[in-house]
DNA sequence: GTTAATCATTAATAAACTTAATCAAATTCA
DNA sequence: TGAATTTGATTAAGTTTATTAATGATTAAC
């Protein structure tokens, strides 16, 4: 068996393991966010993610649509709701009046601080159940994935 | 700095890295599935996941609702569509006539073979861009996550 | 300067989800 | 036993959230 065949089996196995673990872990985290965001703050998980992206600097409808992989009108509608709820606000770019910049209001930031803080602590508690080796392997491999995203 | 503090920083960093990589990677894979499933076979990504779970043995409405974290009526409706499309079929359990087992038809299996095969190959190609160390770290860490799911 | 492209939105509609109610079957227990 | 409860699935009605097509406003291209 040569190196090519060995590494090929390695990759196939990695893909199998991916499907066993990756989706359920993501679902578990989404469920926790739903618990906090919906039950305590009455915003949907999708709205949470939109706020999260805006906070990280994806502050236009087009960028949000691209990063969330849904249509611009859909984002526009969600943004509208978040504006009405006083969590974000729009500002027209003077340089190019087609661009509308989105930013979190003080309320929006406070809400995100609360949800992110809660979720983060919950995740830290979860991750803390793993060994140092396991954490390091996770961090290392996640970093490596940035190359192929 | 003692071990506790070091490992705490380690965990916090892992959570940060998680948010940088995990959601975009998942979105990228979902986008690929959408490309194949929707464009070539005209089923939604959610329908693909339902078929995937049925194929893996989650063959009741309740199990699917639990694993997908949505209501049973929602699953029931999706299942109905998949039955109409001839991709799955229902069988009543003789032992307990409340239970209705779901299974893929020959068409359903063929469709899943096509989509899974395509997606799997695409993922293998993606993963193959990583080094052996990186793949092994990923597999190791994903395996370790099974403990906390 | 007219045409084309870009960014965001509105309008109309469709898909997918929710809760509440219903039905059928099995289980519990007074 | 048999009445009440539980369980699994579905139906019904209504809400949310997405889509496509069309519109408005602004900028870029030729």
Taking Cα atoms only, what radius of gyration of chain A do you get, to the nearest Å? 19 Å
Quaternary status of these chains? Answer: homodimer
Strand order of the largest sheet of chain A: 1-2
The H/E string of chain A reads HHHHEEHH
Q: What integer is the average pLDDT of chain A?
A: 93
User: Roughly what percent helix of chain A?
Assistant: over 70%
Q: Counting H and I runs of at least 4 residues, what is the number of helices of chain A? A: 6
Largest sheet of chain A: 2 strands, antiparallel
Structural class based on helices, strands and sheet pairing of chain A: mainly alpha
Report, as a whole number of angstroms, the end-to-end distance of chain A.
31 Å
Structure summary, number of beta strands of chain A? 2
Point out poorly predicted stretches of chain A. Answer: none
Shape of chain A: globular
Largest interface, C-beta within 8 A? A-B, 51 and 52 residues
Percent range for β-strand residues of chain A: 5-15%
Could you characterize the architecture of this molecule?
Two copies of one chain form a homodimer. The longest helix of chain A has 39 residues. In chain A, strands 1-2 form a two-stranded antiparallel ribbon. Chain A is built from six helices and two strands, in the order ααααββαα. The radius of gyration of chain A is 19 Å and the shape is globular. In chain A, α1 packs across α5 and α3 crosses α4. Helix content of chain A is 72%, strand content 7%. With 149 residues, the first copy, chain A, is mainly alpha-helical. The mean pLDDT of chain A is 93. Chains A and B meet through α1, α5 and α6 of A and α1, α5 and α6 of B. Chain A binds a DNA duplex (30 and 30 nucleotides) through α4.
């Amino acid at each position: 068996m040569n190196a090519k065949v060995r590494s090929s089996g390695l990759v196939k196995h990695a893909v199998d393991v991916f499907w066993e673990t990756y989706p359920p872990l993501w679902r578990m985290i989404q469920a926790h966010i739903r618990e906090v965001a919906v039950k305590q703050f009455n915003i949907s998980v999708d709205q949470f993610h939109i706020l999260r992206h805006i906070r990280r600097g994806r502050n236009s409808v087009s960028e949000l649509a691209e990063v969330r992989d849904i249509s611009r009108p859909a984002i526009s509608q969600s943004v509208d709701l978040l504006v009405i709820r006083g969590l974000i606000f729009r500002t027209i770019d003077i340089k190019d009046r087609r661009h509308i910049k989105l930013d979190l209001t003080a309320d929006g930031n406070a809400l995100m601080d609360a949800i992110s803080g809660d979720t983060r602590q919950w995740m830290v508690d979860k991750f803390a159940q793993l060994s140092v080796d396991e954490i390091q392997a996770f961090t290392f491999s996640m970093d490596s994935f940035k190359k192929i995203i």
